[in-house]
């Protein structure tokens, strides 16, 4: 395992809404003061997105399925593919998040190998699936390719998935021109991703997050644990916070997203129709 391969770089956070609603959701985020960019349709034809790119290189992915499940003919391959999608049964809101992969399929240097080897060395089981191909076509016709490695957990949105670019990342994350990164709400980066889990799951999750990130949490108490994350263009610290709460056994995935802003509004938090944002002074 090469020590130069990082497994702690925050790449993007996923916000899901109802099928066919990407444009409506984009307008809702514009009203919150974000500059929303067109994304495109993914290679599987099932989902489409729009993007909010921040100065730290992290982006918010506003995503929806193109069509509702009921639109696909019964017993058709398309219906089966739609039913088997990792987000098919997820509620609307902040549903998932990605760390940056390295785009490698070479055995031993794959992100999945690195994390699984950490877990095995501690006597635990594999946490991540082998990399598989993903991609989408931009509205300008450019085809993007990447490799995805997903957690083997039954519930998605707790441990991050990894997205490693095969084509240049700047094609997937359009940081140019600089105006793409300018937002009326003055957003500049991600302060924290806040994951809430059941108290019965927290010990296991903290161990698994430690395998993923490669370090024990920097701050912790009986029910709250915090890791510092990297970003592709670091300027301010970004954190992953895991909180245990009495919420039953199902867990809650991402309960809140902290966003750095240069001007904090009178209300220090807001909600999209389906998710909470906490404004943090940059």
From TrEMBL:
Q: Which InterPro entries match?
A: Glyas_Bleomycin-R_OHBP_Dase (IPR029068), Glyoxalase-like_dom (IPR025870)
Report the leader peptide range.
Answer: none
Instruction: Give every Glyoxalase-like domain span.
Output: 10-198
Q: Which domain of life is it from?
A: Eukaryota
Which Pfam family is one of this chain's hits? Answer: Glyoxalase_3
The name on file for this protein is Glyoxalase-like domain-containing protein
What is the native source organism of this protein?
Answer: Marasmius oreades (fairy-ring Marasmius)
